[in-house]
Design a protein that fits this description.
This is Phosphatase PAP2 family protein. By secondary structure, this protein is an all-alpha fold. The protein has one domain. The chain has eight helices and no strands. The protein is globular, with a radius of gyration of 18 Å.
Length: about 210
């Protein structure tokens, strides 16, 4: 619960702070600064990374993961994986509509619809890839050294997805930070719900 409260506080902090003039200047400077690093190689790389954080990659990946889990009769993980995928998107749209922050008005590489705050890619990827990582860790031993690698790889991937949105000119820094924070709040809530239900199912099976 402490971690949930921490990330919720961070989200509220970013939501309040992004309206401050000094922070808006910082946001603009970061986007402008990212434009200075643009070249064909970086642009191609970050478009690919951005796509990994979109529905065009996450949905097929969810299908593949679901088939694998169903093969082993893991019904609850499949239910929560799909629940994560759809619920986080619904929450993100509601938050965007609430805050009504316009996207950067600079030279964006790609077109992005809807409002800017919080970042959908950052928020969705944090929850989706975070829960996918959790399911992978659930199937490994607590002493398995690969656990740290899975966590690190997931964190790096999600971080790069956030950076890609700034580089491509469709999000501000505080959009991304808020997206990460909100995504973590929902991810931790879902994990808590999953563990509670899974524990009750195990007790019923053992009875």
């Amino acid at each position: 619960m402490k971690n949930i409260a921490l990330f919720l506080f961070l989200f509220i902090f970013f939501a309040v702070l992004y309206r401050v003039d000094g922070v808006q200047m910082l946001d603009n400077s970061v986007v402008r600064g990212a434009e200075e690093f643009r070249n064909d190689a970086f642009t191609s790389f970050f478009i690919t990374i951005s796509d990994i954080g979109s529905i065009k990659v996450e949905y097929p990946l969810m299908i593949i993961a679901s088939i694998f889990l169903l093969f082993f009769r893991k019904f609850l993980p499949v239910f929560f994986l799909w629940g994560t995928f759809y619920s986080i998107r619904f929450i993100n749209v509601e938050l965007k509509d609430f805050f009504h922050r316009e996207r950067p008005s600079f030279d964006a590489v790609i077109h992005a619809a809807h409002y800017s705050f919080p970042s959908g890619h950052a928020m969705n990827s944090t929850a989706f890839y975070g829960f996918l990582c959790y399911l992978i860790l659930e199937g490994t031993s607590a002493k398995d050294r690969k656990r740290k690698w899975w966590i690190c790889m997931t964190a790096v991937l999600v971080g790069l997805i956030g950076i890609s949105r700034i580089y491509l000119g469709v999000h501000y820094l505080f959009d991304i930070l808020a997206g990460f924070s909100a995504g973590m709040v929902w991810l931790l809530i879902l994990i808590k719900m999953y563990e509670t239900i899974n524990s009750k199912i195990d007790k019923i099976r053992r009875a």
